[in-house]
Design goal:
Elements (H helix, E strand, L loop, with lengths): L6 H11 L2 H14 L3 H14 L7 H19 L6 H22 L9 H19 L1 H10 L2
Helix pairs in contact: 2-4, 2-5, 4-5, 4-6, 5-6
């Protein structure tokens, strides 16, 4: 007699797979924060060449955590439209930002900066606010139902 998995287990597995982009982006953030200050100083002029209005690397925190919030929202799906879930997304990004700053304390020439965590949370908040706009939400939920 052939046994089949209960439907709830397969649905749970599919839901967990939706978090792969968030986990992958967290790995990218971790890898970037593993760079020494000398390595970042070589990358920053290249970045500023294409975005001259961005004076510091802190803009990288905005963008990185904007993308992380987007990826978490994708993983959560339609429940991400709820106000408290949006708050959770921003708080999760802030928590990851704290761990990222702690990680940087072990990297040569880098030090933790509370303002970076603030910038991380602002980037995440911008995504959640943008995703709350009705015309954005309707298009986004076609991608992340």
């Amino acid at each position: 007699m052939k046994q089949t998995k209960p439907k709830t287990e397969s649905l749970l597995a599919l839901r967990l797979l939706r978090f792969i982009p968030a986990v992958a982006w967290m790995a990218v953030i971790f890898a970037l924060s593993s760079r020494t200050s000398d390595e970042i100083d070589t990358f920053l002029p290249f970045f500023q060449k294409f975005f001259p209005f961005m004076e510091g690397f802190n803009w990288g925190h905005f963008v990185s955590y904007f993308i992380l919030a987007l990826a978490l929202d994708y993983g959560i799906g339609k429940k991400g439209d709820r106000f408290w879930m949006k708050v959770c997304i921003v708080l999760l990004c802030g928590l990851y930002g704290i761990t990222d700053e702690y990680h940087q304390s072990f990297v040569g020439g880098r030090m933790p900066d509370p303002l970076d965590v603030r910038n991380d949370m602002i980037g995440a908040a911008i995504w959640t606010a943008l995703a709350a706009l009705p015309w954005v939400r309707s298009k986004w939920r076609k991608v992340a139902p």
